[in-house]
Amino acid sequence: MPMNAVDMTARPWPGEIIGQEQVLEYLSSEALSARRSHAYLFQGPAGVGKRCAALHFARILHCSARAKPCGTCKSCRAHGAQNHPDFDLVAPPEGKRNIPIESVRNLLDRLALKPVLSSGRAVVVDEAHLLTEEAANAILKTLEEPPDGAVLVLVTDRPATLPETVLSRCRPVRFRPVGQADCRRFLENAGIREDAGALAALASGSPASALRAAAGPVFGNRRKFAEILLRNDPCGAADRADEIMELSGASGSGGLEAKRKAVIEALELMAFISWEAARTGWGAQGRAGSLAEAAGRSRFPGPARWRAATLRIAAAAGHVRANVTPSLALDAAMGDLCRMLADLP
Asked: How many CA atoms lie within 13 A of 203 on its CB side?
């Protein structure tokens, strides 16, 4: 894919950005402002529309109508065809975990060219926290001496990992989690109706996460994950960990990063199940239904133990995010959960 091409198949186009109305209004006003910045930092949780909003902003900047893309001018048509000569998207190359210096050098070479269709170039750096140190330093030089008319947008859900020198030269644009009602409507509009409420609650304000969960193996196996939590076997930690790896699809031959994401998704689902058990009195009031027989339990943990279990599962997900080997994090967490949720003597 050419450097300035944009793959729009993986994420929704700006018309589907939900819950970020104030941000979109702000971007429209910025495009018309005489005090517009040359660099912006789009920051906020993953999967809430930052990247799509950055692409939308580029269209506004290049549109002859401004404020809102008209969809019919030459620039809008070029963006729609994903071949605008004055736009570049920089992201980690496929299969890589960072943005190398080579990608930034190619960008700088293009920024040195005169714009073709517009008054200035627009650049979106997606997952900017994955810039290598050398690449971040190269971006910094551009932020310090930007080409005339150019606008750079850095997109990240981890701004604290970027150098302070980069952060200080960008105007922050903050995105917030999407409300459950908006997220549910988004899922229903996407054709996901039966499980929209549960997915919206599980997504923690991230419509993109909800869509991935709906399509992946983890949510489809939610009953089995609930059974794993309820199983009354104080010595079965290793078996539970292996089963979670299998159910999440993390036991296959995929790369470590894919396995890490699968295990995190499984742990987030289990934390949600555990928290719901504590919130609704699921176990104490016998609401688990036929799961009781599947788990072989005669009694259920009370809300306090479910809350403690939720915190332990969330901690395990955090450990996997911090690059602890998924299988090791699971083994340790399941050992603790076996003891925490076992039947009291």
From this structure: 29
* Of 208, 181, 326, 190, nearest in space to 263 by CA: 326
252: left (phi over 0), alpha (psi -120 to 50) or beta: beta
Using CA atoms, how far apart are residues 50 and 176, in angstroms rounded to an integer? 10
* Euclidean distance between CA atoms 243 and 203, whole angstroms: 23
pLDDT digit string, tens, across residues 297-318:
556 778 888 899 999 999 999 9
Q: Which amino acid is at 270?
A: M
Write out pLDDT tens, residues 51-102. Answer: 999 999 999 999 987 667 888 999 999 998 999 999 999 999 987 889 999 9
Q: How confident is the model at residue 289 (pLDDT cuts 50, 70, 90)?
A: very low
Residues in the chain: 345
Residue pLDDT, tens place only, 117-170: 998 999 999 999 999 999 999 999 999 998 989 999 999 999 999 999 999 999
Give residue 2's pLDDT.
40
239-272: burial string, b at 16+ Cβ within 10 Å, e else:
ebbbbbbebbbbbeeeeeeebbbbbbbbbbbbbb
Cβ 163 vs Cβ 136: under 8 Å:
yes
Distance of CA 195 to the CA centre of its chain: 20
Distance CA 51, CA 154 (A): 9
Question: How far is residue 206's CA from residue 178's CA, in Å, rounded to a whole number?
Answer: 6
Task: Of 90, 99, 101, 98, give the one whose Cα is nearest residue 58.
Answer: 90
C-alpha span between 196 and 22 (Å, rounded): 25
Give me Rg for the CA atoms of the chain.
Answer: 23
Indicate left, alpha or beta for 74 from its phi (over 0: left) and psi (-120 to 50: alpha). alpha
